[in-house]
Structures are given as C-alpha cells and as structure tokens.
Amino acid sequence: MSDFKFEKGKMVPVPSHSIIPERDIGKTPVLECNHLGIDFGGLRAVDDFNFTIGKTEIAGLIGPNGAGKTTVFNLLTKVYTPTRGTILLNGIDTSGKNTVQINKMGIARTFQNIRLFTNLTVEDNVKIGLHNSKKYSTIEGILRLPSYWKTEKAAHERAMELLSIFNMEHLASWRAGNLPYGAQRKLEIVRALATDPCLLLLDEPAAGMNPAETAELMENIVKIRDTFQIAVLLIEHDMKLVMGICEGICVLNFGQVIAKGTADDIRHNPTVIEAYLGKRGAE
Predict the structure, then answer these.
(1) DSSP 156-202
(2) Which residues pair with 257 in a beta bridge?
(3) How far, in whole angstroms, is CA 267 from its chain's centroid?
(4) Cβ–Cβ under 8 Å, residues 231 and 198
(5) Are 140 and 148 in contact (CB under 8 A)?
(6) DSSP alpha helices (H): ranges in 42-143?
(7) d(CA 85, CA 171)
C-alpha cells in the first residue's frame, strides 16, 4: 500500500453527546440517529443506535460480521422501517419516506455485492444515477424534442466528469459487466455520486481489492469529500483504510454501540480490542 497520508480534521463535542469535525461546527449535521432500533420477531437486530455525522465528515461504522452494520444502512435508506427511534437528514425527520424519496433527499449508497446493470455501458450506468436531474417529460423523450437532446448532452458531459474522478472516461463505452472487479466497484460509487447526494454510504468498498487498489480508493474517498463537500459513511473491515481516513468511528457489536470516537480512541479502547480488533489491536 502507498504512503498516502490524510490530514484529518480536529473532532470536537456537540450537544448530542457526539463528536464532529471542528470545521462542521455551526452547520446542521448531515445525519443524526437518535435511539434507532429495529426488531425482527423477538430479535433486536439494532438497539439504541445513536450517531451524528458532520456535514463534511468521513465516518466509519465497524464491527464483527453480524454486528448489524448493513442493517443500519438499510434503516438509513428505508429498505427497513425502524421499530423505534428517529433519523434526521440535514435536520429533517425521514419518517414515512421510502427508498426513492430518501435518495432524492440526499442519501446514496453502494452495496456489499456489486449491483450494476451489467449489460449496459459504463456511461449508461452513470446516466441512470442522474435520474434526479432529469429535465424532460416522457412525451418530450419519445418525440426527441430539443429539451430531450439538451438534457442528454448535459447528462453525457456530467457522466464523463464523474467518471474522471476514477480516470475511467476511456471506459465509458465498455459494457459494465466486462470491467475488472475493482473498476466495477468504482463504477458503483460513481453511479451513487450521480444522484447528487449529501451523504454517501459505502458498504465494504475495498472488498476484493488489493493493497494498491485500496490505497487509491482511500485517496479517492478523500477527493470525493473535498470535491463535492459531502459526508461519507463507510462500512469496512480493512482497518488500515478505516483508521487512515475515518474521522469519527462507531463500533457495533450484537446490534449495539460499544464505542464511538476518533481512530486513536477506537484503536486503544479495550472493549473494541476484545470484541473486534483482536488482543493486539489495529496496527
């Protein structure tokens, strides 16, 4: 892995008993989860989940397999409806919203298992993500009126701009299913960015990547945050990635938060070391 170094922001406390980057003080947090929980039958899959993310924070959600991390993502995106608790996005309660409405409000995500339209081109996959900015009616599209061509031209330019984040413009005409695994991972992130999110959820983005690809991914996550001035929340088992770029980290175990803090806080937390990182901790 390269010697990439990320200058993290200073983390400071806020009234909700959380910490956010100092640069985000005075701005409404992008995400506030208060006493969030969900039951499946008699099983409490997630219980009393409290977490705040600053407007431009890179945050991490970690824990052993089965700890409830992806369940939290499913709650945030309304794949699941919470049994209790509230989710505020930019201070707005998301209760009663569905997955489409949540995406339009500003949450985009990737998945553990890549979900691309494999038979479509790379560019068309990105254009699908641009649905939130579509500016012509169905009739205008069928009749190919000027508004259709104007929107299509803008969509092409925007897709190429987004692909340039990962230097993938030259792959625009490729069939998505023919891309190498690492490139498919990147394309899924680009498609999520195309929806113009304020909060990007990345579910194990480094899964299957080699050390060089992971190092590049770290740099690109920081680049995405800086370029779009958005927040990023990632689930990841690669501790070098998590400790390298995450400013605030939340640790789950059996659906409950066992620790929250900076990378240094988490690295030296005895409960975390025993439950997840191993007796020697993260290097």
Answers:
(1) HHHHHHHHGGGT-GGGTTSBGGGS-HHHHHHHHHHHHHTT--SEEEE
(2) 252
(3) 22
(4) yes
(5) yes
(6) 69-76, 99-105, 122-129, 138-142
(7) 43
Do 114-196 and 1-106+197-211+232-283 fall under one CATH topology?
yes
Is residue 233 within 8 A of residue 31, CB to CB? The reply is yes
238 torsion bin: left (phi>0), alpha (psi -120 to 50), beta (else) = beta
Superfamily of domain 114-196: P-loop containing nucleotide triphosphate hydrolases (3.40.50.300)
CA distances in angstroms from 22 to 29, 81, 107, 162, 248, listed in the order given: 12, 32, 23, 29, 12
Question: Which residues, 6+ apart, have CB-to-CB distance to 180 below 8 Å?
Answer: none
Signed CA dihedral, 77, 78, 81, 87: sign only: positive
Place of tokens 């977490």: 51
| Tens digit of pLDDT at every position of the chain (283 positions) | 455 566 777 887 876 667 899 999 999 999 999 999 999 988 899 999 999 999 999 999 999 888 999 999 999 999 999 999 999 999 999 999 999 999 999 999 998 888 899 999 999 999 988 865 566 555 555 556 666 657 678 888 889 999 998 899 999 999 999 999 889 999 999 999 999 999 999 999 998 888 998 999 999 999 999 999 999 999 999 999 999 999 999 999 999 999 999 999 998 899 988 876 555 544 4
Provide the residue ranges of all domains of the chain, joining segments of one domain with +.
Answer: 1-106+197-211+232-283, 114-196
The amino acid present at 132, given as its one-letter code, is N
Question: What's the pTM?
Answer: 0.87
Place domain 1-106+197-211+232-283 in its CATH homologous superfamily: P-loop containing nucleotide triphosphate hydrolases (3.40.50.300)
